[in-house]
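Before anything else, study the sequence and C-alpha cells given here and see whether the fold suits the sequence. Record follows:
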Amino acid sequence: MFPTLLEKIKLLSFYPLLQFNLKEQITSYILIYLKSLSIPPPMAQKELSKYEIIKNLIDKKINGTEAAKQTGLSVRQVKNIKAKVEENGAKGIIHGNRGKKGNQRINPKTIEKAKYYLQTMDFDFKPTFAMEKLEKNHNIKLSKEKVRQIMIEIGLWKSRARKKNNEYRSWRQRKDYYGEM
C-alpha cells in the first residue's frame, strides 16, 4: 500500500498543469500516508500538561481528586481519560474528532451550484437578498454568512473592516453642587 501512495504523490507533483486541484489531491494522499504510519497528531501545550498530570496519576504520584483539580475536570472525566491513556498512550488525551470533517458541513455540490447561480445573476445583489433569491428561485438554502463568503470568494463582494469610532468621548467633569451642569 505504501509504494502506491508514494508513487501517486510523485506522479502528481510532476504534472502541475492538470485540470483538477493538485494541492488538495496531494494533501489527501499525504494525509492517507501519514495515517497509515499511525503518527499521532500534534498536541497543544494544554494537552501536553494534561498528559503529564495523567501520567503522574497512573504512576500513583497523585490521586484522582488532585488530578481533577489540576486539570480543571471532574473526577469522572479524569478516570475516563486515564483509561484512554492506558489503552492508547498519548493519543488518549486527544479528542476523537480531531482532524475529521464536521458533520454539519455543506455539500460541496450545493456550494458549486450556488456559485454558478450567483455568477450568472445579472443583478448587483447584496448577500442577504442573494440568499433569499437562491432559496426562492433555485431552492438552495444557505445562511447569509455562507452566501457572503461565497460572494467574496468569487469576487462579487468585498469584505470591509468594521468602522472604528475615531471620536473619543469622555464624561464631562461633575460639578460640585446639585443642579449645576
